[in-house]
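Morning run. Coffee first, then this:
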Amino acid sequence: MTASVFIQTLNEEDNLPRCLASLTWSDDIVILDSISSDRTQEIVKAAGARFYQRKYDGRANNQNWAVENIDFKHAWVWYVDADEVTTPELANEMNSVTSDESRPEVAYFVRRRNMFMGKWLKHGGFYDVWIPRLWRPERIRWKRGANPVAIINGPTGYLRNDFVHYLFSKGLAEWFEKHNRYSSYEAAETVKELDHGSIDWKALMCGDPVGRRIALKHLSFRVPARPVAKFVYSYLLRMGFLDGRAGFTYCALQSVYEYMICCKVKELRRREKGLPV
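And here it is:
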C-alpha cells in the first residue's frame, strides 16, 4: 500500500484496537494525540505506530499542524478517526489509485456509513456526505474550528467504497459532551458567516456535491426556526424515517444540536451588546 495513515486521538483506548485492526495494510500509521489520560499511548506503541502529542486547539489547527510538521513515509495519507473502520474493499481501491502515478488527482473524497443502534443510517442526508480523506499532505489545508473545510490545491476525485463510522461508540453522554464543544465552534462560525458571508447560489443549484453541501450549510445559517427545519429536512424530506427508531432518534439529536448552536449564537450576540446572558 502506498499510503500512510493519520489518526487524531483523545482517550480512545476503547476504539483504537478495532480501528488499528482494519489498517494492517499500511506500514506507516501516525497518531496525533490531544494529551490522552487513558491507555491510548500504550495501545499505539504496542501496535508499532508513531505517536505525537499536541494540545488540542481545534480540528483544523491540529490537521494543519500535522501536514506541516509530520514527515509521512508515503506521498499519500489516509485520514481516519479512531471510531472508524477502513473496509478491505476501500483499502484495495485506495491502493489502486495511489499506485497509479499517471492520475492527476491530489485528493479523494469518500462517503462514510454512520452506524447507530446497530443500524446503518442510510437516509436522512447523513450518508450522501463526501469527505476528503485520502490526500497528498502538501496539497491540502483546513479552515474552521469544528467540521473543518478543506482547501485543496489541485484536482480531486471520488472513491466508490465507503468507510464505517461508529459515531456513538462511547455512548450518548460522550456524544453530548463532544457536541457541546462543537456547538460553541459552530456558533462562532455562524456569527462570522452572518456578519461577513454570503450564499453561493451557483454552487447551491449546480455545484459538485461538496460545494453544494457547503452552500446549503451557509443557507441554513439564515433559516428561521433552524432546529425544526433541520428535523423536517432530515427526517421527512430526506426520509430519515426509513431508518426506523434509529433514524428518528438521530434526526432528533441533530435537531437538538442545532438548537444548542442557536442558543449560543444568541448568547454571543448579547455579549456583543454588553447584555447579561
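The longest strand covers residues 107-116. Good start to the day.
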